[in-house]
Amino acid sequence: MKHLIIVESPAKAKTIKNFLDKNYEVVASKGHVRDLSKFALGIKIDETGFTPNYVVDKDHKELVKQIIELSKKASITYIATDEDREGEAIGYHVACLIGGKLESYPRIVFHEITQNAILNALKTPRQIDMSKVNAQQARRFLDRIVGFKLSSLISSKITKGLSAGRVQSAALKLVIDKEREIKAFKPLTYFTLDALFEPHLEAQLISYKGNKLKAQELIDEKKAHEIKSELEKESYIIPSIVKKSKKSPTPPPFMTSTLQQSASSLLGFSPTKTMSIAQKLYEGVATPQGVMGVITYMRTDSLNIAKEALEEARAKILKDYGKDYLPPKAKVYSSKNKNAQEAHEAIRPTSIILEPNALKDYLKPEELKLYTLIYKRFLASQMQDALFESQSVVVACEKGEFKASGRKLLFDGYYKILGNDDKDKLLPNLKENDPIKLEKLESNAHVTEPPVRYSEASLIKVLESLGIGRPSTYAPTISLLQNRDYIKVEKKQISALESAFKVIEILEKHFEEIVDSKFSASLEEELDNIAQNKADYQQVLKDFYYPFMDKIEAGKKNIISQKVHEKTGQSCPKCGGELVKKNSRYGEFIACNNYPKCKYVKQTETANNEATQELCEKCGGEMVQKFSRNGAFLACNNYPECKNTKSLKNTPNAKETIEGVKCPECGGDIALKRSRKGSFYGCNNYPKCNFLSNHKPINKRCEKCHYLMSERMYRKKKAHECIKCKERVFLEEDDG
């Protein structure tokens, strides 16, 4: 082997390997090969600065050993991780573990995974950018310090298991502020005077006795009726008709935030789901031209487009839509973010030739939907603007003026691709200074609406506008807030849970900078400065750490504990201590006040424990229905002496056994299980047996390796696929 290329993901490695000859070996690091210790702060802090204690986790030890061995055999080892701070840091850690000088490892980058992009990158390698690495390390250290120190303090003052973070807490503050706005909102009733003139012209009163009327200005019903009575007696003419041409500019191509927003509003995808699908489209999928990446890198805040891609798009528009739809020059967009990574590109298809219709038999339905969204948006960004004619008619009398507005599409432009849901609102043909008859005048009551809660899309938009986080952090931040039970997302709306209010109240009072969007944005700018070699990362860390730790120490003394325990008047059956009511993230429970010496706990009656007619098969006690974060289950009422539990069918945590199919590892039962990340099939003997599958196993063995097969769908056809070796057998019937 002459050359070794190290990338991040196995899918990317597989795709790149298809483009190169046998002189190249491509291996994946599978993300970060080492990180700060999970069980301690992981950073040594003294007068010399901040020194990390990086460790290789057990899941990567064999892989790291393999990479080191492959590198020793290779004449050249290329680092080809993603071209962002995280990717630069991963490449740095890989090089450090292999050993030797960093300069001896050529660093190659590309924004799309196509043969031309890979070959061009190999011709123009650079060195690992330590400024980017230091920016990533500074971010990691900041997040670890805040998360480790502040989360511990919050948990000690409120409830165990709570957390705080530099980005997550600033984002959570936005959600809480919105909840407070909604709670403080007081509806206001106001009135409008809506007229119908002949021939069918709908207009609204905008001026009365020379005074302009703004929306919500008429709040007195009696006054509204008085004005209505006066205006019904008047005669009307048309003093003004104005028609103007107005352009609707083409939207720019997608970057990370706008892709997540559009996928949420148009496709109903969560940000996490959007990024997961986009990752697959970037790393490589099956196409008529073979396996390749079909979109450019999806974590970007840049709107730049490569010259070749612009030329391809313009040629496509001219061929398919004609010269009327092609602007004289290619359109150039710039990001509003002054710290955007302009070396990157916007998100676009890698080849304009790969139309969505050409991929419908190759991509999964959700992949095709997202690819279509990206493809159409990019092509539309290089088309002519849409052109409208806006119409405005004023109808007046001596005491008041009414106004009617309309719009007509003159040239569809980029709507030819993206479509236009807005229907034309045409006004009747009228002439200035002509009289017009009032047919009907109504006084209509309206009630102001409360502020609308954030959706995932609108929250991302606000985070981006305020400079909180970066493209790679939007989706993980929202997922983290959900996993911490701070927020819930229902019907696309984000609402805050009770624990979130308590956390934010403490942070606002004692750590105002952590939840201050301006402070978070300024830190992001500092990280950008480090990445551009304009600031020293050790100094940035010092400037933050020491004032922050002073506040942590003050908080330990000054923050009043909210862990108020209500006495029950009962004694602990284990140690005789006093039993008290406590609260956790998952509800109320009773525990011994001598914790942690005595760990006796039991659920309270208010925890919705419902008695059943079933008896415990282990001790004969009564089985009661209880509730956990994963749903309902049956448990023995003699807990903790008896810890017998049973799952309930038709509940979120039900374990539905697949009859006739046994675990290939231990012979146990295989059941459908559920976790926060979704459903999967696993062995009921977990944790002794770790068998699991993302697809339903069937009672059939692979002819190649004799492992269990699973049911799959490929290209609209049913297939059986081996869970282990991926050997695939298509069935005759076609469900397409």
Structural class by helix and strand composition: alpha+beta
What multimeric state do the chains show?
A: single chain
Percent of residues in beta strands: 25-35%
Distance between the termini: 45 Å
| Separate helix tally | 18
- Report the uncertain regions: 650-654
The side-by-side strand order for the widest beta sheet comes to: 8-9-13-12-11-14
Query: What's the shape?
Result: globular
Main sheet characteristics: 6 strands, antiparallel, barrel
Number of strands: 32
Average of per-residue pLDDT values:
87
Kindly state the percentage of residues in helix: 25-40%
- Report Rg: 32 Å
What does this structure look like?
The protein has 736 residues and is of the alpha+beta class. The chain is built from 18 helices and 32 strands. The strands form 9 sheets. The protein has a 6-stranded antiparallel barrel. A 4-stranded antiparallel β-sheet has the order 17-18-19-20, with no helix packed on it. Helix 5 packs antiparallel against helix 17 and helix 9 crosses helix 12. About 1% of the residues have low confidence.
